[in-house]
Design brief:
By secondary structure, this protein is α+β, with helices and mostly antiparallel strands. It folds into 2 domains: about 170 residues, no CATH class; about 45 residues. The strands form 2 sheets. Strands 4-5-1-2-7 form a 5-stranded mixed sheet, covered by helices on one side. The chain has a two-stranded antiparallel sheet with strand order 3-6. Strand 4 and strand 5 form a beta hairpin. Helix 4 packs antiparallel against helix 5. The longest helix is centred in the C-terminal third of the chain and has 56 residues.
């Protein structure tokens, strides 16, 4: 089944879209949960460490030998250094991180929400964590939930939250620009309207996050209650089996051994 929502993120922005997003020009990482597909550029390749020194060393030694007249050996080492350097460069090129591609961003702007503000990206990350927690409860809920429907609703809720965050982001920019001209009475009504709208968006974002948290916690608590009920039934069965039996009438072997040991010791002391 095709994802209902795509989330692409890197160190600078997050794009939430109902249309496909991908990583181009290099390596990327994908992670799917529910009907959401997350994509992100891969981490850049690490330093090759000793290999860099080997490449440099071969090149330097080869060049020195060539200058000193040892053409055969020097040329060979120089070629080896060149080959090693090319191989190292090819490895890094293949491992290079890609970039986010949103090919329909401009033509279908209403299907994309772009977040660049750090606080808004953090809020969306928190929402994704809540949505993932929710989706993880579905296998344990069985027939209690219509999973395909729940997947679509959760993706839609995440998209709507991203839209609220994007609107808040734009409004914060406008609010900051108006604040730079705080003394201009002509802008005072706009400033008041922007402040009121910004407060309303703050409330909306908080409400949407609270709703997602409620959904996640509800599923987790239901599973926990079922686990507690199952443990209670198991405890009742075990206690009934272990505590309902009549006291044993079979002689205690330990007591018999203790009595015999005491008798032997008494007899030994009497003989001394």
């Amino acid at each position: 089944m095709a994802p209902a929502l795509y989330v692409a993120h890197d160190d600078k922005l997050v794009i939430v879209s109902t249309l496909p997003l991908e990583i181009v020009g290099g390596r990327g990482v994908t992670f799917g949960w529910g009907s959401v597909l997350e994509v992100t550029p891969a981490d850049p390749p690490g330093d090759l460490g000793p290999m860099t020194g080997v490449v440099l060393g071969l090149g330097v030694v080869g060049a020195a030998l060539l200058l000193g007249g040892a053409a055969a050996v020097g040329g060979g080492l120089l070629v080896m250094g060149l080959v090693a350097g090319l191989g190292s460069g090819w490895h890094r090129w293949r491992k290079r991180p890609g970039v986010i591609s949103a090919p329909q961003l401009q033509s279908n702007r209403d299907q994309h929400h772009v977040l660049v503000d750090e606080a808004d990206r953090k809020a969306l990350s928190d929402a994704i964590d809540l949505c993932q927690r929710t989706s993880e409860t579905w296998p344990s809920l069985g027939a209690l939930i219509d999973v395909p429907l729940a997947q679509r609703q959760l993706a839609h809720a995440l998209f709507d939250l991203a839209g609220a965050l994007e609107r808040r982001q734009e409004l914060q920019e406008l609010h900051a620009e108006l604040a730079e001209h705080d003394g201009a009475f002509e802008l005072a009504p706009r400033m008041a309207k922007a402040t009121t709208a910004l407060a309303a968006l703050d409330d909306e974002v908080a409400r949407r996050l609270a709703t997602l948290n409620t959904v996640a916690v509800a599923g987790e608590e239901l599973i926990r209650d079922e686990q507690i009920d199952a443990l209670g039934r198991q405890a009742d069965e075990t206690l009934a089996r272990l505590t309902s039996a009549e006291p044993s009438t079979v002689p205690d072997a330990g007591s018999e051994l203790a009595e015999r040991t005491e008798a032997v010791l008494r007899a030994y002391r009497e003989l001394m």
